[in-house]
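Final report, closing paragraph on structural work. Over the funding period we assembled a curated collection of sequence-structure pairs, and we close with a single example.
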Amino acid sequence: MSSTCYSASSIQSLNPTCPSSLIFTLHKPQLLQIHSIKETKRTRTVRTYNSNTRTRRRMTSVAAMNAVSSPEVEVQNQQELKKGIAELYDESSGIWEDIWGDHMHHGFYEPQSSVSLSDHRAAQIRMIEESLRFASVSDDPAKKPRSIVDVGCGIGGSSRYLAKKYGATAQGITLSPVQAERAQALAAAQGLGDKVSFQVADALNQPFPDGQFDLVWSMESGEHMPDKQKFVGELARVAAPGGTIILVTWCHRDLSPSEESLLPEEKELLNKICKSFYLPAWCSTADYVKLLQSNSLQDIKAADWSENVAPFWPAVIKSALTWKGFTSILRSGWKTIKAALAMPLMIEGYKKGLIKFAIITCRKPE
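Its predicted structure, as stored:
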């Protein structure tokens, strides 16, 4: 397995910070209007990974991330997990859309900035734009993506945005029938019915042929994947030669060279979050990079955007505590209530440096 090399480069700011690997896409909100923001410059450390570098530490084995008892038990566990994820989003997606809009993911903010509620939807759009910029996705008509897959699409906010931005076709997949139906209705209402389509499908067994998509997009869905190796393998499989993969996901912190695993109290906190959000075992950014390397992907880059998403969860909690948010959660069902009660645990994980909001991008060889 290739080793990793860390090089610092300066990028234009709008930095990210986000929670570690939760297994699918947790539907977060979108932003109201897009507010213009000043172009400022900050220095951000980006890690670029090459196949000829030395391994800094012994990484968590992929087998340990995915494994367990017997194959039969594992299949049953995964089926129960998928059922829980689908039901959670069937219940809660309408609430998120009503309060936050159709972008169910973190927003991107200037570090330590103070923001009002009206800024959050614009920050969600910035998250999309900053992710595209980080991955160096071209706006050149000759090079821009023409076919896109949105893996863990929610109600299709990213799919529709990307299709409009690039004049591309987009296909979204989700485990939630409610989300797929709502995503298609919104596409039709926005005049995108011939460009964007959605279906219920498993990200670990995508219903697409090899090499179909110029841009493979996964915005906060990796957290829900019980088999990270298979997940990354599917992202690589459906990418076209020369295509770009953008993975934005919650991870736990990278282990130090002397560590074999997280601390017991860290595991305990993540386990509590997993039970509420229907997540499998978490992994680190370094684990994801190792998996991308094992699939012979190129130009692998990763960054920790945790500082850039810091205002998001407090805003989500604040919106849940309004009368509208509170009554909606109570009406939606027990799974949504459990997820709402776990929100402070996400903030705790971020503050302790345990949860990381990671962006990882790469390119499939020509």
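The chain has one domain: 71-364. The first helix runs from residue 62 to 66. We thank the funder for supporting this effort.
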